[in-house]
């Protein structure tokens, strides 16, 4: 057994007991596949600012940031006050509320492409509603999407493959409705144009505008602008999935940075102040179909708690204008980690825009992280960016040093110099541990999607 795994089991024996208890009532012991971790995941009891703690009081610098949902760190005072106040006033009125209207007004002010907003109970639901609107508006049925782009976990829009399927095979037989899908590799406008020629029934093109998983394979502005022109010519709706990037990469999301206005935008996470919820924002022509033509219901759509948190979050974004500082924090952490990788002669890279951190293990150019442009690398290399066994041991080693991260991580306004020092020191110690086990070979086996 790996020495790292042995240390992990010994240090966190109390968590192993908690994991065993969870497995008795939760499938796999977790409530989301993203929380699986071998030999067992850790269980946290509280969080504040840039850290979270387990029941034994052990602190961990948190780079998950609520899967990207927390721009101001854990338990930001303004958001705590807003949600606590709303709990005292009522958690569900079964009626309209003023906060929902003001929340929508804030979103419209941030996204010039949008004229109306409809709230949902989750980001996944928002994407499905956007597709329904596009189909009704165009009278067409098919959706064009891109390899690797993530649009939630349900049905036809469930997780996409990391590569195109073999001829005649659905890319995901268990989840996809093949007749409603057109799967295309990104970066290739000609391939998109050819898909429209083959499939005149395309109602919408849906994508993450910065690339799959919020920028793992960066998309060029030229490609996204080309999609805008092509969809207009073809009469199809352009849907931007900004569930992660909305209010994360800037106050107007990725579309403001790219200078491209979609027909529909899906939002969640930061938009909802880190609470459950989602939204579709779009043009009046598409959105006003919800004014009696297309049914949409939801017990918790635009609920008072999510509205309170979302409104408080958007107010603080408008007041603090935090994105320049967030980008600087992200830039400094990426530079420190890449310098560490280069000093060890590793072909590893941390890249990303703004406050986003993407880990790549095995780009094939040892010692080049300081000068490498991820956008110039092969998409297949970036999509399979972490080596399964090495990544798992790295994560355990980082947890032993008090840092919790994922292959796609984030920083918040709460992360300061002390947290960056902790992360850098944790990586130094974790790499030492991996080196002792001979686990730093650049030829390590690439991960399958299930390993990520």
From TrEMBL:
GO MF annotation terms: pyridoxal phosphate binding; transaminase activity
Listed Pfam families: Aminotran_3
Taxonomic superkingdom: Bacteria
Keywords: Pyridoxal phosphate
Entry-linked InterPro entries: Aminotrans_3, Aminotrans_3_PPA_site, PyrdxlP-dep_Trfase, PyrdxlP-dep_Trfase_major, PyrdxlP-dep_Trfase_small
Cofactors: pyridoxal 5'-phosphate
Coiled coil: none
Family listed: Belongs to the class-III pyridoxal-phosphate-dependent aminotransferase family.
UniProt protein name: Glutamate-1-semialdehyde 2,1-aminomutase, putative
Organism: Plesiocystis pacifica SIR-1
Taxonomic lineage of the native organism: Bacteria, Pseudomonadati, Myxococcota, Polyangia, Nannocystales
């Amino acid at each position: 057994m790996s020495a790292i795994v042995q240390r992990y089991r010994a240090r966190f024996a109390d968590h192993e007991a908690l994991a065993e208890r969870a497995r008795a009532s939760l499938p796999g012991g977790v409530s989301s596949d993203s929380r699986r971790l071998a030999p067992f995941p850790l269980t946290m009891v509280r969080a504040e600012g840039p850290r979270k703690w387990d029941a034994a009081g052990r602190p961990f610098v948190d780079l998950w940031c609520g899967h990207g949902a927390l721009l101001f760190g854990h338990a930001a005072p303004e958001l705590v006050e807003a949600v606590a106040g709303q709990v005292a006033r009522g958690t569900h009125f079964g009626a309209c509320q003023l906060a929902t209207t003001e929340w929508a007004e804030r979103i419209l002010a941030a996204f010039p492409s949008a004229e109306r907003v409809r709230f949902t109970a989750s980001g996944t639901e928002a994407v499905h509603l956007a597709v329904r609107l596009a189909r009704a508006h165009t009278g067409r049925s098919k959706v064009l999407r891109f390899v690797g782009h993530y649009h939630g976990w349900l049905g036809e829009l469930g997780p996409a493959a990391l590569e195109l399927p073999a001829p005649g095979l659905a890319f995901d037989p268990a989840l996809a409705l093949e007749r409603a899908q057109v799967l295309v590799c990104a970066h290739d406008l000609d391939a998109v144009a050819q898909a429209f020629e083959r499939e005149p029934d395309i109602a919408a093109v849906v994508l993450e505008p910065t690339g799959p998983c919020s920028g793992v394979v960066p998309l060029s502005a030229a490609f996204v602008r080309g999609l805008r022109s092509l969809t207009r010519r073809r009469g199809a709706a352009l849907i931007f999935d900004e569930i992660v990037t909305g209010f994360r990469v800037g106050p107007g999301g990725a579309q403001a940075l790219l200078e491209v206005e979609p027909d529909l935008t899906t939002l969640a996470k930061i938009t909802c102040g880190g609470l459950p919820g989602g939204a579709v924002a779009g043009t009046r022509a598409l959105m006003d179909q919800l004014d009696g033509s297309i049914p949409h219901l939801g017990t918790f759509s635009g609920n008072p708690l999510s509205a309170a948190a979302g409104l408080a979050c958007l107010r603080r974004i408008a007041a603090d204008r935090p994105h320049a500082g967030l980008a600087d924090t992200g830039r400094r952490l990426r530079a420190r980690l890449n310098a560490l990788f280069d000093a060890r002669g590793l072909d590893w890279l941390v890249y990303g825009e703004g406050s986003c951190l993407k880990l790549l293990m095995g780009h094939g150019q040892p010692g080049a992280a300081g000068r490498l442009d991820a956008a110039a690398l092969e998409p297949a290399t970036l999509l399979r960016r972490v080596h399964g066994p090495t990544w798992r041991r790295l994560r355990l080693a980082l947890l032993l040093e008090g840092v919790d991260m994922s292959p796609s991580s984030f920083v918040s306004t709460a992360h300061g110099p002390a947290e960056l020092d902790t992360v850098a020191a944790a990586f130094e110690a974790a790499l030492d541990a991996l080196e002792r086990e001979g686990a730093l070979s650049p030829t390590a086996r690439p991960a399958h999607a299930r390993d990520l």
